Amino acid sequence: MTNPEFLMRPEGREDVQALNDLAARAFGPGRFARTAHRVRESAAVVKALSHTAWVGDELAGSIRFAAINVGEHSDALLLGPLMVDPKWAGQGCGRALIEKGLELAKAQGFALVLLVGDLPYYERFGFQRVPPGQIMLPGPVDPARLLGVEFIPGALKKFEGMVQGEA
Ligand SMILES: CC(C)(COP(=O)(O)OP(=O)(O)OC[C@H]1O[C@@H](n2cnc3c(N)ncnc32)[C@H](O)[C@@H]1OP(=O)(O)O)[C@@H](O)C(=O)NCCC(=O)NCCS
After folding, report:
1. 165 lines ligand 1 (CB under 6 A)
2. 120 lies in which domain range?
């Protein structure tokens, strides 16, 4: 079977209900307790980077980016949530959303994208582990899952300290 075509468009206000439903399907009830969720609550969503992926009129996946400060620096983003409906998993939807978001983030001059996730999935997009203790989130995070991709070689090194939402 060939992969479906995922039509991507920037997230709009009219997508709220469909996104809430998708979050329940992709993450389940534990999603509000996550540390990354706590940062995102206080951070502005970067609308131009945050996309929904559709198959016909069905929401298959979505990605969001939030503007953050890391210590003194503000040219960073927190990726998440990335959600793919289990029904459409493994068919390139996650890849398409990540590649689109990273390409736009780079073009807009951001230096770093952080996320909390599985390295075996995200390393294919250039993410690496943040050295333990370099960057902190306001809550518990498994250091093996704090990942970053730098758009300027060596940029990750300058980001040190606490992550805060840039409202
Ligand atoms: C993780 C997730 C976003 C991947 O999206 P997707 O559209 O299924 O992924 P893609 O089709 O782009 O890639 C599929 C590949 O990634 C691999 N993969 C998926 N999740 C993985 C993980 N956690 N670790 C390692 N590999 C993973 C698949 O095995 C597959 O490998 P293959 O290409 O060798 O067959 C999706 O499964 C999902 O929404 N999961 C629940 C929510 C979540 O964990 N979000 C991420 C944290 S914010």
Report:
1. no
2. 7-165
